[in-house]
Amino acid sequence: MNTRDLVLVSLFAAIIVALGLLPPIPLGFIPVPITAQSLGVMLAGVILGAKRGALAVALVILLVIVGLPVLSGGRGGLGVFSQPTVGFLLGWLPAAFVTGLLSQRFVNSTQGSVAQLANFFIAAVAGGVVVLYACGILGVMLVTGLPFAKAFAGSLAFIPGDLVKAGVAALAARAVQAGYPLLPVRR
């Protein structure tokens, strides 16, 4: 990694942390609140690619481990890893990686803007919704003992908001791709 990569990883970690300043919205039927930080995870993947996006998320998780209150609601520390949100938190890593990998594979400079936008959206949904929910639902089940059907049904409430986040991430990634591409070129 060069200095530029380190700066980008740090910048996107800071974006994820900044999105944590927005207060969480608790839901009564599942012990996981709605937060804006998953938008930062999607942004890191679609703009930086798999490796740098996952490293940005890993940096945020490291900050949580050392006890900094960087999660939505001012949470941090090792206690976070015993809460129902642990699956979503740890799921940020594969979510950013998959989002970035799909972006790198399916978005290129020869495509038109609509195709790039669509591919960024698909990548954000695949990584930032499908992969993240798989990890999150598993975490809820393990920590709370909820059966799969209830954990899955409770997670459905997040889908509309996360689709909006995927759209925002796709629009941002397309704008960056058009003006100053940061996504690694596929080989």
TrEMBL record:
<feature type="transmembrane region" description="Helical">
    <location>
        <begin position="119"/>
        <end position="143"/>
    </location>
</feature>
<dbReference type="GO" id="GO:0005886">
    <property type="term" value="C:plasma membrane"/>
</dbReference>
<keyword id="KW-0472">Membrane</keyword>
<feature type="transmembrane region" description="Helical">
    <location>
        <begin position="30"/>
        <end position="48"/>
    </location>
</feature>
<dbReference type="Pfam" id="PF02632">
    <property type="entry name" value="BioY"/>
</dbReference>
<feature type="transmembrane region" description="Helical">
    <location>
        <begin position="86"/>
        <end position="107"/>
    </location>
</feature>
<feature type="transmembrane region" description="Helical">
    <location>
        <begin position="55"/>
        <end position="74"/>
    </location>
</feature>
<comment type="similarity">
    <text>Belongs to the BioY family.</text>
</comment>
<keyword id="KW-0813">Transport</keyword>
<dbReference type="GO" id="GO:0015225">
    <property type="term" value="F:biotin transmembrane transporter activity"/>
</dbReference>
<keyword id="KW-0812">Transmembrane</keyword>
<dbReference type="InterPro" id="IPR003784">
    <property type="entry name" value="BioY"/>
</dbReference>
<protein>
    <recommendedName>
        <fullName>Biotin transporter</fullName>
    </recommendedName>
</protein>
<keyword id="KW-1003">Cell membrane</keyword>
<keyword id="KW-1133">Transmembrane helix</keyword>
